[in-house]
């Protein structure tokens, strides 16, 4: 981080539609006859999948693949790619790993990025420390902040926001300094009527054995949570019409990540169980009425997001399990409720020891008047 530019945000996470409020601190070390100080707020959203397909390759005949299209594994290039819609041949590249040749195909999902720009100050600036408050508007339909990168680096996605302070020298057509800071946003959740939902398991008869039916219902006090929070669950397990005992009820949280490329093709990146807890069962002919359980959400979960490029979803599932012979032939007794995970960040502390602020330029920025739209940048 550039120690000459610091940011302080009043709220670690901003709700979409609210204003991002904070202060920016700027240290000028030498007099500038004419400077232009600009503050911008930028959004970026993309998904990228690198797919490698092994193809026939004869090492004794290197002309099979033009050398200029071959990448060494030590240095992967993406300069021939473009997130824009280009002819297919510009997306075809190759990678040589020892004696194995791979065809490398990249699937992009892109979204227009919005840039809000505000000119804060133009004129002479003397050496010293300066600060100003800012209040940046956000859009009501903005999605929660999200970042994903697989361990092998072949799958990436981001929905990110950042604030940038730039000091330009207009007479020299150059930039003296520039510094950015990430901003975290929580998307708006559904209406209250949607939040309080109840999901009931269908009546199920075990196949072939005619051992009766089991009914399971599930209810949550809400469906909007932050990582580390407790989920309060109320469930009813009716085993009065079954001859099988239910040994346990398995509660689990499923995380499903999907990328959608520019051709609207959906690819499931992850569909994993991030949490599991076993609850008590019930004997044959008995019923558990309105049982309460507390489940702790893992602290490292990414926020829920649903856009045309990225979907990150969570589902709380409860399954009644009978550990008996041939029960695997039956239809599972499963309840499922989608839940929303919000972005959560700790307050960021900055050290202003040694800073002595001058009164000039201690201005307040309350609105961004300029709005531009540009093609989102796809990092390599």
Automatic annotation (TrEMBL):
InterPro entries per record: Arrestin_C-like, Arrestin_domain-protein
Biological process according to GO: protein transport
Domain Arrestin C-terminal-like: 210-346
SMART domains for the chain: Arrestin_C (SM01017)
Pfam families reported for this sequence: Arrestin_C (PF02752)
Gene Ontology CC annotation, any one: cytoplasm
PANTHER family for the chain: ARRESTIN DOMAIN CONTAINING PROTEIN (PTHR11188), FI21816P1 (PTHR11188:SF17)
Protein name: Arrestin C-terminal-like domain-containing protein
């Amino acid at each position: 981080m550039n120690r000459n530019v610091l940011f302080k945000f009043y709220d670690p996470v901003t709700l979409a539609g609210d204003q991002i409020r904070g202060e920016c601190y700027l240290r000028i070390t030498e007099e500038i006859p004419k400077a232009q100080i600009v503050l911008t707020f930028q959004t970026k959203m993309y998904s990228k999948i690198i797919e490698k397909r092994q193809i026939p390759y004869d090492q004794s005949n290197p002309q099979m693949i033009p050398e200029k299209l071959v990448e060494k594994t030590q240095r992967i290039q993406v300069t021939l790619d473009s997130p824009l819609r280009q002819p297919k041949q510009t997306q075809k590249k190759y990678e040589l790993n020892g004696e194995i040749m791979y065809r490398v195909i990249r699937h992009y999902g892109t979204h227009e990025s919005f840039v809000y720009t505000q000119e804060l100050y133009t004129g002479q600036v003397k050496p010293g420390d300066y600060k100003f408050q800012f209040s940046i508007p956000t859009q009501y339909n903005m999605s929660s902040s999200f970042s994903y990168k697989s361990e092998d680096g072949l799958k990436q996605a981001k929905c990110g926001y950042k604030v940038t302070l730039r000091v330009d020298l207009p007479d020299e057509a150059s930039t003296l300094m520039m510094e950015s800071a990430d901003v975290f946003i929580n998307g708006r959740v559904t209406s209250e009527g949607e939040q309080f939902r109840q999901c009931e398991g269908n009546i199920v008869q075990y196949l072939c054995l005619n051992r009766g039916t089991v009914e399971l219902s599930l209810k949550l006090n809400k469906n909007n949570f932050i990582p580390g929070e407790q989920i309060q669950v109320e469930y009813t397990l009716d085993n009065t019409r079954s001859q099988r005992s239910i040994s346990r009820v398995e509660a689990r949280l499923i995380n499903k990540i999907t990328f959608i490329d520019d051709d609207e093709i959906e690819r499931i990146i992850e569909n994993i169980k991030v949490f599991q807890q076993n609850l008590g069962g019930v004997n044959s002919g008995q019923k558990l009425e309105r049982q309460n359980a507390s489940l702790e959400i893992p602290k490292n979960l990414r926020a829920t997001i649903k856009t045309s490029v990225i979907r990150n979803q969570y589902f709380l599932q409860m399954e009644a399990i009978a550990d008996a012979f041939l029960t695997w032939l039956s239809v599972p007794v499963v309840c499922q409720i989608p839940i929303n995970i919000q972005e959560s960040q700790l307050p960021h502390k900055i050290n202003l020891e040694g800073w002595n602020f001058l009164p000039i330029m201690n201005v307040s920025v309350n609105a961004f008047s300029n709005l531009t739209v540009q093609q989102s940048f796809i990092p390599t």
